[in-house]
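Q: Could you write out the predicted structure for this multi-component system? I'm mainly interested in how the pieces pack against one another.
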Amino acid sequence: MSDKGGLHFEFDVDGGNFVSAGTASERVKNTLKQLGIAPFTVRRTAIAMYEGEINMVIHAGGGKAIVDITPEDIKIWLIDSGPGIEDIELAMQEGYSTAPEAIRMLGFGAGMGLSNMKKYSDIMEIDSRPGEGTKVFLQINLQKVQNG
Amino acid sequence: MKIREIVDAINAKVLVAGDDGLDMEVHSACASDMMSDVLAFVKEQAVLVTGLVNPQVVRTAEMMDMKCIIFARGKTPDKATIELAKSKGIVVMVTPLRMYTVCGELYAKGLHGGEDNVG
Ligand SMILES: Nc1ncnc2c1ncn2[C@@H]1O[C@H](COP(=O)(O)OP(=O)(O)OP(=O)(O)O)[C@@H](O)[C@H]1O
Ligand SMILES: [Mg+2]
């Protein structure tokens, strides 16, 4: 699949460490900057991934982030073995959050993360099974695609 | 306005002077205690006003390419937060004023919200 010479990253996202949450997204952001990708694209990619990374830490006890960068697009998979999301449509609604008070005291739990991810990515897919885990796919296009 | 003028306007103490220093010009700000609220507006916003102190505030500012964080209500950030801001070159200051007052003072001096948000 990657015969086009893209970049591939895999990160373990530590669910027990709130302080380090976001370091994977930070690394990806720096890489995109170095690649000379447009600042607005870098920012929305970083934000979308950061929201997903934080979600794995606060809702799923950590997980894994996989990132593929090619000249065409950036693909991000956020995979965890947490409790899963029962009603994805409900979870996507702005303001819906199951975050406990302790998490809200840390500045998360506004119920905005998933909708931010959708807003900033070109493609977002959530695959989740209660009791098994959650897989979020994000794609950010790098070349202007004409709408057909 | 210049970051230096912000310091004067809200009686702040600078904890981290940042990469570009206090003479940098900033044009818009946002204020919240919820990080995903901050992240919801991808528009150029240079200053973050918050009553929350933890390293994720700095991460959020960094994701947004913000230049300056103002911790309101006299809350002092811990070492990890300060160190992270230093490593990112982000200006950090603390003010005894409450968030509402900080926003009012800065708005009156021309630091606006960058209203035409994505969304
Ligand atoms: N990886 C995940 N595993 C399990 N549940 C999740 C996961 N991601 C999101 N959720 C569920 O979906 C809800 C909405 O997520 P969203 O990111 O939009 O808001 P939040 O994380 O609660 O708050 P915010 O993102 O504003 O800090 C969460 O409260 C949680 O119930
Ligand atoms: Mg979230």
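A: Regarding packing and overall arrangement: Chain A has a mean pLDDT of 94.
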